[in-house]
Amino acid sequence: YPTWKRTLARRARESQMKRFCRAQAIQRRLEEIEVTFRELEQQGIKLEKLLRDESESPADQQTQWTNQLLYLVQKKNNLMTEESDLMIAVQELKLEEQQCQLDEKLRSYMNKEDTLKTAEDEKAEQEILKQLVEVVNKRNVLIQLQEEKRLSEL
């Protein structure tokens, strides 16, 4: 078993573990965002009730409640943006995993001697290459989407 094959296998395992850890971190953050959404929703409901029910309260108090409500809306919008970014990251991780699997399959076909390849092997190799190009194009679209989003935020 040549050294380069062991190195490739080790790097593949390492990158797979990194993707797994990133996926777990993203999942935890999405759960945290969900909890925060619910908390913000409850706070917003309380503030809206105060604004509706306490119409005779001083103008300063109503202004303060309105400002708090606007702050909650802003915070919720920021969380929604973060959630959207995380969902894009999830898609990117899936495509990255798919690309690694296709790379591995393609490498196994390409390492086979040309004289030993059957017509089915050649066809399978071409199909995998086609799928790999599609995955790379999808990843490129996601990266472009992220870049456009980043530029629009600036």
TrEMBL record:
PROSITE patterns in the record: BMERB
Organism taxonomic ancestry: Eukaryota, Metazoa, Chordata, Craniata, Vertebrata
Name of the protein this chain belongs to: MICA1 monooxygenase
Example GO molecular function: monooxygenase activity
Subcellular location: Membrane
Primary residence: membrane
Domain spans labelled BMERB: 13-154
Keywords: Coiled coil, Membrane, Monooxygenase, Oxidoreductase
UniProt xrefs under PANTHER family: [F-ACTIN]-MONOOXYGENASE MICAL1, CALPONIN HOMOLOGY DOMAIN-CONTAINING PROTEIN DDB_G0272472-RELATED
Source organism of this protein record: Phainopepla nitens
